[in-house]
Amino acid sequence: MSIQPLTDEAEPVEPQTRAQWYPLGAPDALGLAPLRTLLLGRDIVCARDGDDIRVLNGNRVLPAVVRYGTLWTTLAEPGDPEMVLPEVPEADEADRRLVGCGAIAVASSGLRLVENFLDMAHFPFVHTGILGAEPHTEVARYEIELRETPGAAMSEVWATHCRFFQPQAALAASGGILTDYTYRVAAPFATLLYKTSPGQDSRQDVIALFIQPMTPTTARAHPVMFLLDDTSTTEALVEFQQTIFLQDRIILENQRPALLPLDASTEIPTLADRASVAYRRWLKANGVRYGALN
Description:
By secondary structure, the chain is of the alpha+beta class. The chain is 16% helix and 36% strand.
């Protein structure tokens, strides 16, 4: 499909942000009425056209791809960097369950949502009794690295060797465990967590948070899980994940500023904030400014 230049008068967006792929929602949710939403300040309409789905920005037909149970699009223009959808190999494993958890609107920068996802220090205080509990509040030192992805215009940020005690790390967990975590920032608005799977020590559950930045200070979160859980109901799994995210939303919507500061002098980090610091530096180095301050 040939890409035509944008014709609306929305606020300009830097090419490396405009060309990313963004989630719009579960295609199964598209009924007779079109879905109307915002992406990077642009009006977006998603509608069924027979068996196909059309994504429109005004008179412009945008690319549409269904992957991970989610409809994706991009606002890329000619000459923009070549961006690719995040690859999640676990999604193709036959014994995994793909669980889409809907879309949750948050009055905060999409970048703030990603940063919050990377933060373990808030577990005991925001997700008490689930992802954390006092007195287990220490975040042990972990490692940060950048990994190149074939065909991608940006590297990825990985936080490895993360460990944290959790009273209920997953719905299927029967008690508290010391959970092994690996965090992956696959794109400025896409992040994944690989964590200990209860009952399968050699494999990990994968939880993805795909972000649809609507404006610089509003976003829709699209959590998707790739789980090794054949006992829990889908409804219970969705409720468990949404409970955690709605606890986060209260914190996110009260953070000031709503934009994510990129200048290191704006907020003073601690050792537990190594992933956040790396993420902000990476955004700044790649010229990502949508939803950012500085």
